[in-house]
Amino acid sequence: MGAMERRALLAAMATGAAGVATGLLFGRRLDEPADVRRADAVDVTLAGAAAGAVGIGAGLIWGRRQMSRRPPERVDIAIIGGGIAGTLAAYRLAARHPGLSIGVFEVRERIGGRLWSVPVAPITNEVAELGGMRTPMQHRQTLDLIEELGLRTHPVHAVSPENFVRLRGHRMRRGEVQCAGQFPYHLPDDLAALAPGDFIERLAQAVGLNDLSLVGGDESGAWLDGLSYRGARLSFMTAGDLLTEEFGAEGAAFLQDWIGYELSDIAASKWLGTVLSVSDDDYVGVDGGMQGIPLALAARAADAGVGISLGWQAISITDHPDQSGGLTVHLQQAGQAHTRSLRAGTVILAQSGSAMRRLWFNSPILQRSAVLSRALSHLVENDSIKVYLAYERAWWRDLGLQPGKSVSDGPLRQTIYLPEDEQGRSMILASYSFGRHALRAFPGLESSPDDTESGRLDASVIRDITDALSDLHGVSVPLPMDGRGVRWGDNTLGNDIPLWGPGVEPWTVADALAEPLERRRLFVCGDALSLNQGWVLGALQTTDRVLEHIG
Questions:
Q1: What is the pLDDT of residues 12-24, one digit of tens each?
Q2: Which of 41, 216, 250, 322 has its CA 20 to 30 A from that of 99?
Q3: What residue segments make up the domains of the chain, in order of their start?
Q4: Please, which residues have CB within 8 angstroms of residue 236's CB and are 6 or more apart in sequence?
């Protein structure tokens, strides 16, 4: 990559990361007939207006360069996975070891993993964050990386007292809610008198956490060690059991409905850590989209000579036959029967939980690792639905609603209103459903929209969601001008969101997972087996620990 291209790419990261993503999608199709390219260019131009023309141009340059690469036969370091962990590892290792050959191999046709930012023209101030959408202000390591990459941020509003809570058919403003008894749950008097926040304080005291200032920044960190409920360690019981035993079935239902998540199968320690470790009001997003972080990392890695091969899946890992200590990664082209063998001195697995499980199943080397086998066996895979709808005007403003979320016990669960652009157009995250509830909400999303369509929704799904919005808000909601969505939980490409289940204490296995597996140059990183699952921070922490061992 020349100096001019490099400067253009860095400018793109700073001014329009989503434009780079769109450029990548278009760059992937450069070998199509010219008339097809011209038609697509119209869409690209519109999306570029939303995300930054500089970003589109740089994305095209980098997309064209990278998509043409085929997997090599041999590298010094092979990184499996092109999300945050994989691109960070590639970027750091290329800087530290400029003489080594490094390759990144990603099964999808895009960089980013569960960070997927989609421009929705003609809206200019926001993108549809179909994956991760924000980072808490407490995650200093993530904010430092964003600053290092030259990306800009903006505040993301989580709650507003003006927004709705609609539970069991009763709709109220959040600021009007004083106690659980205002909603028709069958609660004993002591619970009905509690404010929603008091439920969490009571739960913390019940498990022995009497001083909330002791809560650490890691959601599954060592601060949870020793906490128990009626003699049972929190890490060895489910969240559903803990909530039901303390509050009864109706109290547990109220608390989960109020929060907007249904995560009863995960470990009680993980649930409590998730609720207590992250505030509900201090977040930031990345201008142009969170996907800009791995795109910027991948661009810098490529500039340093890292090869990036998209559309290739690791199906097994074996020792190299010559017993030299090297490893062989067996790759398969996505959607094809074509396979290749890649020899590597060091292999870093930077994958989702389900992808690592599939690789483990086909790789005796991984099966012999007791710590990895135990960790993978205690992951609970969760479904999630995210749907964005775009409007010519922010109709919810007529109801006095503000940027932030409304919650309900219906199919939408969380509905998040985004700020308007200069022309008054805006989007809402019309459905954000996580856990068991996502399995039941909107069957039309069971087959998730794929990357090539940028998450574009069918008209029938949009109508179903519009009906649910009308019910939540008590008005007839207009049909949007565009709709994008995804169901995370389709594991064919590793689209799972794994969280720690009962039976393991993550703070005791985290360091061991950073060590080489089975005395080989074989490492594991990524948020799936971290202390902060589902956050960029988890990927950064595990990757940094692996890099310390590699040197």
A1: 443 444 444 444 4
A2: 322
A3: 3-115+289-380+495-550, 164-277
A4: 267, 502, 503
